[in-house]
Amino acid sequence: MRPRRKILSSPRAKWSFLSFLSVILPVFLGDALPAAAQDSEKPELATHESETTMRARSSMVLVRTVVRDSKGHPVSDLKKENFKLLDERKEQAIAYFAVEGVSPAPAAAPADASGPAALQAETPAPGAPPAPPAPQRFLALFFDDVHTKIEDLTRSRNAADRYLAAALGPTDRAGVFTASGQGILDFTGDLAKLHDALENLRPRPIDMQQVNPCPDIDEYQADQIVNHRDEVSTGVAATEIVQCIFNNDSTKSAQAQEMAFADASHVLEVSDTENGYTLRALEALVRRCMSLPGQRSIVLVSSGFLAILRRTEVSDVVDRALRANVVISALDERGLYTSPEYDAASSNAIVGPRNGQKSLLRMTANHESADVMAELAEGTGGTFFRDSNDLEAGFRQASAFPEVSYVLGFYPQNLKPDGRFHTLKVSLVQPAGLALQSRRGYFAPNKLLNSEEVAKQEIDEAVFSQQELNELRVAVHTQFFKPANAEAQLSVLARVDVRSLRFHKEAGRNRDDLTLVAALFDRNGRFIAGKQKLVELRLRDETMNRLSQTGINMKTSFDVQPGAYLVRLVLRESEDAHMSAVNQTIEIPF
Fold first, then answer.
1. Beta bridge partners of 302
2. pLDDT tens-place string over residues 288-333
3. How would you class 40 by CB atoms within 10 Å of its CB: exposed for 0-12, middle for 13-18, buried for 19 or more?
4. CA distances (Å), origin 16, targets 20, 409, 451, 460, 492
5. In which domain, by residue range, is 433 found?
6. Using one digit for the tens of pLDDT, what is the confidence trace for 16-71?
7. Counting C-beta atoms within 10 Å of the first and last residue's C-beta, which end of the chain has fewer, N or C?
8. How big is the chain by its Cα radius of gyration, in Å?
9. Strand partners, 584
């Protein structure tokens, strides 16, 4: 019988979770297999390092649904069979169903008593000062500073300051984020820092507009002129040009129309650039929230925008937030719209019958520009606060995590990779006067992912989601060794129950592949380090019988500073794509 092999890892493997994440090291695998006869050409256990990257989406489509009764109270007792889900009016089989609320995540499953002796986590010495409470709620205030006006932003930031001063608790963390990327403050519990960050917010449009632009065209009117060739919208803009540039010379009408089209094209170009800034920054914030424990919510504070050319990006933000269990709410900082008439005090105000048409365009634009905010809130289970000047109450409502929501998942059948938008509709078998809020639809991918790409994405998303999964039986324990007052060595010990794996027979061996990922986060949910390894199992019957009693033990080590940490371990097996994801917290004293 050959001696037991000791599998050593190489530090060459790199894993890019997000653009700001550091280099990833491999997982050390120790005491994995007892002594067993092995074929030199076909070892029973082999390991391989591999690069893993974040993917845009996986094959399952998720739909978060909030159900309320006639009084607006959430309904919490519904089952999978109570729901119907339609994709392009065709009913879909619900493959995934979960009820989510504000209760804390369950603790990790205890070790199986039938296996090897349980590993005990080391605890701080008696008399050590108690650790501060770990954060349980993360609130990101995302100010769309590229679409705002100074008067709107001043009201919203002051309301946010008052709300945080009254509502931020010891286990809450808040951060200030912007579409422009300027003036950002990462999550903190320091009210003074939050106050300063809010005070420093400024409108940062991409194109500095004139005080009295002529013609005064917004994104909605520009879209009507350029993309829909709307005669009323074009006529209103041309009339403005005749009055403010050509001194009411009606013979310049044709030239004014050409100028109106050119100005509208420029407005659309600038608006698309600003929309890109906002959506990219919002997606980056969702990615930032993915690594955080507890409740994660974003409040989008904006004066509204259309994102005409970026509907796919809006859908992608919804999709990523759903997979990360991040709720996006929205607050329309314009408040109650009380100016239906075009401002006669403006130097460019239209004189004559076109004034009413301009007023109607403005009212329609005000309504349409809130559509993206509504879509983000509806699709992720959030709240859209609008048409009210009580912005402090708006922050209270928008920052509240939904009490109960239902997440439905389905695999689209015969989905063509054509990038087309698919409408979704969720309904109840017996509505009984209940109101539903859910995702409007999704875009088909431009290409279909293969099984390897789907596996990589599922692992990446599971690492950052913080949601626990229990499809495979794995016990996780943490230990630390602190030889000095500086660094400590943190060990993550995992034991996999072989009986929960789905082997298949091939050439007389029991075959399965395991991908193991261990990731380390600090108290504030910031990613510190992660390690991964692919473990190929080609077990003989006698070896598998023995491992069924002992399990497979794995060890991962991190060099860390004293402090509080969250350890996230994700295990995925290849045969049935089953996964487990476990969280462990540990406090290493100073």
1. 332
2. 887 787 789 999 999 999 988 899 999 999 998 998 889 999 999 9
3. exposed
4. 9, 27, 19, 10, 21
5. 59-102+402-448
6. 333 333 333 333 333 444 433 444 456 776 665 443 333 334 578 999 999 999 88
7. N
8. 28
9. 567
